């Protein structure tokens, strides 16, 4: 039975209460004095005895009332504390001044992969954070967000310490806050990640792209390494993000890095991370690499052909062993990462020249994926142009709703050396220039590259040729380029103002009929 007695503070009050209980031979389990009340827990009693006891206690001087309560204050605080510790995702350990663990919540046990009961009473003398806790006990200073390697789980945790002080401001213990590095990365992902890209977000109308997307959906379900090939601006990163979204790793992190954008001296530390003091300028506490940050997700290495041979060796080892070692560290951390790479370079030629390791090439080229340039899928030009037009018109709040026939023809007749990225820029520029509701040819600024994107520029006059020979070579180049763009001999005839029969004869003449 538990009783709460609001009262006025006076000397001898607890003694008077104890005398009443002693006279009735009632055993006191515990008694607590809070400001303005006395709490009493005693052995179980019959209902009539309970009523008599309450009446006797109410007659004690300065006791205002007596009421039955469910909890003693200390027990209530303890249960509230347990509820709080159980509800938080951070691991909480409480250490006394002797370095023994006196409190451990479920999250700490989960992070450290041990049973909560086995932690109580254990010394932290041999733990990774012993030095940090000892310093807090000694100085009373707090430490925030220190990244440390935890031996028992072979991984890193983010650790903070807070001193516990008594009423005299003496340090009597330390609260250790553990954060799972995976939880930290998940939080960073939620705060910084861009919107996910699905294969349905890739705009296309050409059969070659539809077949490529269908093929890529199957590849997404695998964990194998993918090598995406394609010219600059074809959308290699878009496909990489779609592969990640369509995989079983979609809830993990997608981490992109451009190997050509980071100096070689920094690339190694970016990929693999480093320990504190590994080199001059290293961040205090060290830094995880991109392999660790993408653990459980996907790492996208764009422009892989620009990676130095020295880093290629290290990358190959990580792909084979699935373990990574930070610079300046002797420990290896297991990583579960799917690697997707991309390049616009000819890796086969680089392998022959010794600029790219052959063993790494075969490791990366498990699933090859080649994105065709925009000039080889002219059916997509108008569709993409309409998509970009709508997007930029909405963004800039312009009332542009389409292209004139002449503007669309100008877009379709251009060679697009910069591919989809160039088309996007051209449309954005057009939306800025247009004043009416339609984009006209004068709004389509194709730049100086358009002048060099002429099929005639591919003709090489290395030896002397007669006028007839030169005209024939130019005619062949024009036919070849037009056929590649429009894919149909009838469309070629329409564009070049030739009959269908004349086109077929010329294609046979220049041996282009089967191209």
TrEMBL record:
Keywords: Activator, Aromatic hydrocarbons catabolism, ATP-binding, DNA-binding, Nucleotide-binding, Transcription, Transcription regulation. GO terms for molecular function: ATP binding; DNA binding. InterPro entries: AAA+_ATPase, AAA_lid_NorR, ACT-like_dom_sf, ACT_dom, Homeodomain-like_sf, HTH_TyrR, P-loop_NTPase, PAS. GO terms for biological process: regulation of DNA-templated transcription. PROSITE patterns: ACT (PS51671), PAS (PS50112), SIGMA54_INTERACT_1 (PS00675), SIGMA54_INTERACT_2 (PS00676), SIGMA54_INTERACT_3 (PS00688), SIGMA54_INTERACT_4 (PS50045). Residues 202-432 form the Sigma-54 factor interaction domain. Residues 2-71 form the ACT domain. Pfam families: AAA_lid_14, HTH_50, PAS, Sigma54_activat. Residues 77-123 form the PAS domain. It comes from the Bacteria. PANTHER family: C4-DICARBOXYLATE TRANSPORT TRANSCRIPTIONAL REGULATORY PROTEIN DCTD, TRANSCRIPTIONAL REGULATORY PROTEIN. This is HTH-type transcriptional regulatory protein TyrR. The lineage of its organism: Bacteria, Bacillati, Bacillota, Negativicutes, Selenomonadales.
């Amino acid at each position: 039975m538990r009783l709460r007695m609001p009262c006025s503070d006076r000397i001898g009050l607890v003694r008077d209460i104890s005398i009443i209980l002693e006279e009735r031979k009632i055993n006191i389990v515990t008694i607590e004095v809070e400001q303005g009340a006395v709490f009493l827990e005693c052995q179980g009693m019959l209902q009539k005895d309970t009523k008599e006891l309450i009446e006797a206690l109410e007659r004690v001087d300065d006791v205002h009332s007596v009421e039955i309560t469910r909890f003693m204050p200390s027990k209530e605080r303890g249960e509230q504390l347990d509820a709080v510790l159980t509800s938080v995702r951070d691991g909480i350990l409480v250490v006394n001044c002797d370095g023994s663990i006196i409190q451990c919540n479920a999250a700490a046990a989960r992070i450290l992969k041990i049973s909560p009961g086995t932690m109580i009473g254990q010394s932290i003398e041999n733990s990774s954070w012993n030095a940090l806790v000892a310093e807090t006990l000694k100085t009373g200073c707090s430490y925030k967000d220190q990244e440390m390697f935890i031996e028992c789980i072979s991984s890193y945790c983010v650790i903070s310490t807070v001193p516990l002080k008594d009423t005299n401001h003496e340090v009597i213990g330390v609260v250790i806050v553990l954060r799972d590095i995976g939880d930290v990365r998940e939080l960073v992902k939620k705060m910084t990640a861009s919107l996910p890209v699905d294969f349905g977000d890739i705009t296309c109308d050409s059969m070659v792209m539809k077949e490529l997307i269908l093929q890529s959906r199957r590849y997404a379900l695998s964990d194998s390494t993918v090598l995406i090939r394609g010219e600059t601006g074809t959308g290699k990163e878009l496909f990489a993000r779609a592969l990640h979204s369509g995989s079983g790793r979609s809830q993990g992190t997608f981490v992109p890095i451009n190997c050509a954008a980071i100096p070689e001296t920094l690339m190694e530390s970016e990929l693999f991370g480093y320990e504190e003091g590994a080199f001059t300028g290293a961040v205090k506490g060290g830094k995880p690499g991109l392999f660790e940050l993408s653990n459980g997700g996907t790492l996208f290495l764009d422009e892989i052909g620009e990676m130095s041979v020295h880093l290629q060796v290290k990358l190959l080892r990580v792909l084979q062993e699935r373990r990574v070692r930070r610079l300046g560290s002797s420990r290896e951390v297991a990583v579960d990462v799917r690697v997707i790479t991309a390049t616009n370079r000819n890796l086969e030629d680089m392998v022959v020249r010794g600029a790219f390791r052959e063993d790494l090439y075969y490791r990366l080229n498990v699933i090859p994926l080649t994105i065709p340039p925009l000039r080889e899928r002219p059916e997509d030009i108008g569709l993409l142009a309409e998509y970009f037009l709508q997007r930029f018109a909405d963004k800039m709040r312009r009332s542009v709703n389409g292209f004139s026939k002449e503007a669309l023809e100008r877009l379709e007749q251009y060679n697009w050396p910069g591919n989809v990225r160039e088309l996007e820029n051209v449309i954005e520029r057009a939306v800025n220039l247009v004043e009416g509701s339609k984009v006209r040819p004068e709004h389509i600024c194709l730049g100086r590259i358009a002048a060099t994107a002429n099929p005639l520029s591919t003709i090489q006059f290395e030896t002397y040729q007669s006028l007839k020979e030169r005209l024939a070579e130019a005619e062949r180049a024009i036919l070849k380029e037009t056929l590649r763009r429009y894919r149909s001999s009838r469309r070629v005839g329409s564009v070049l103002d030739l009959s269908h029969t004349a086109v077929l004869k010329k294609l046979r003449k220049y041996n282009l009929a089967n191209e």
